[in-house]
Specification:
Strands 1, 4, 5, 6, 7, 8, 9 and 14 form an eight-stranded mixed beta sheet that branches. The chain is α+β, with helices and mostly antiparallel strands and 326 residues long. 45% of the residues are buried. The chain has helices at residues 66-82, 105-119, 126-134, 191-201, 205-225, 228-247, 258-272, 293-304, and strands at 2-14, 19-21, 26-27, 31-48, 55-58, 61-63, 87-95, 148-152, 163-168, 176-181, 277-281, 287-291, 311-316, 322-324. The longest helix is centred in the middle third of the chain and has 21 residues, at 205-225. The structure holds ligand 2P0.
Length: 326
């Protein structure tokens, strides 16, 4: 049986930063994201008794290395949970500007989980799908849903209460995200490694855990009352707090470049001038700016003038998993 699914990337407003169980991808804190409409991954999966091993074709090219091992390890989890015994052919096309550092394991593993589970003939709930996607990459658990999404960390050691839940559907609150590319460079410290090093060595990590719990409460309040200023102040503060933990790690590291800081300063200056926008940054130097529709064009005009800005991708809030015809 063959199945195909599409999943969109998401951007965390309250960050996932730290695991309490690396094998099961169980986080140390809840996180909250919006799914974006611009960047997505289409993946088809076919289990085939004639295959001697899993095959992975990415953007038309056979992948035969570390990536294949990771995909195969994930497919093993799908096989274990469903009783499927055959190997699979996985064909993935990323509609994500990878060169710009916007590549996301979130859309990749969400699409793979959805297509693979459907290809086994299993009829599972979105909650179970979120749990499966989580075991490929934590942030993928959130890309099962569109709109505003919370990934609940749970407390059970087996991860049975660790999954994403939808907070608001795609059309409930029209916010815009300007994805700003300042560099094409691949990041030096991968997020998985950076997270681990921070948990193990940064004395600021305990402060992060206290702060993120309070930030989450404020963000959820802002979302339920559609209070953009409260949401913006909270998401910008939360991103800064996440990045602060990396400075305390041993050895220390930082994801920002001077161009990153230029964009951050510019967003804050534009805000003073009445263009209300807030920035967030993931495990890399590029910046995402969150705003309301009426300020989007003004911000695009102003931020495009910065010499450090290579490209701006305007995004809207996107949908959850969809299944595609073969
Ligand atoms: C997030 N990040 O909440 C945070 C903020 C990066 C910074 O999720 O190890 O690729 O595969 O679970 O999901 C990136 O980490 O990590 C991430 P794994 P993932 O979006």
């Amino acid at each position: 049986m063959k199945a195909k699914a599409r999943a969109y990337t998401n951007i965390a407003l309250i960050k996932y930063w730290g695991k309490r169980d690396e094998l099961l991808f169980l986080p140390t804190n809840n996180s909250l994201s919006i799914t974006l409409d611009k960047f997505y991954t289409d993946t088809s999966v076919e289990f085939d008794a004639s295959l001697k091993q899993d095959q992975f074709i990415l953007d038309g090219q056979h992948v035969d290395s570390k990536e294949l091992k990771k995909i195969s390890a994930f497919l093993d989890k799908v096989r274990t949970s469903t009783g499927e015994v055959r190997f699979a052919r996985v064909d993935s096309v990323n509609h994500v500007p990878i060169a710009a550092g916007f590549a996301s394991s979130a859309s990749g593993y969400a699409a793979l989980a959805a297509a693979a589970m459907k290809a086994t003939g299993s009829n599972i709930s979105k909650r179970e799908l979120s749990q499966m996607a989580r075991q490929g990459s934590g942030s993928a658990s959130r890309s099962i849903y569109g709109g505003f999404v919370e990934w609940q960390m749970g407390v059970q050691p087996d991860g049975s209460d660790c999954y994403a839940v939808p907070l608001l559907p795609q059309d409930a609150w029209d916010l815009r995200v300007l994805s700003i590319e300042v560099t094409h460079e691949v990041k030096k410290v991968l997020s998985r490694e950076g997270m681990k090093r921070t948990v193990e060595t940064s004395p600021f990590f305990t402060g992060w855990l206290e702060a993120v719990a309070a930030d989450l409460i404020e963000a959820k309040q802002a979302i339920s009352t559609r209070d953009f200023t409260l949401l913006g102040e909270t998401l910008e503060r939360n991103a800064l707090r996440m990045h602060a933990t990396t400075l305390g790690a041993e050895p220390p590291f930082m994801y920002w470049q001077s161009s990153t800081v230029k964009v951050m300063e510019s967003v804050q200056a534009l805000r003073q001038e009445g263009l209300e926008a807030y920035f967030t940054i993931d495990a890399g130097p590029n910046v995402k700016v969150v705003c309301q529709p009426h300020d989007e064009q003004g911000l695009l005009n102003e931020l495009s003038k910065l010499d450090v800005v290579k490209h701006i991708y305007p995004c809207r809030i996107g949908p959850g998993i969809t299944y595609l015809d073969l």
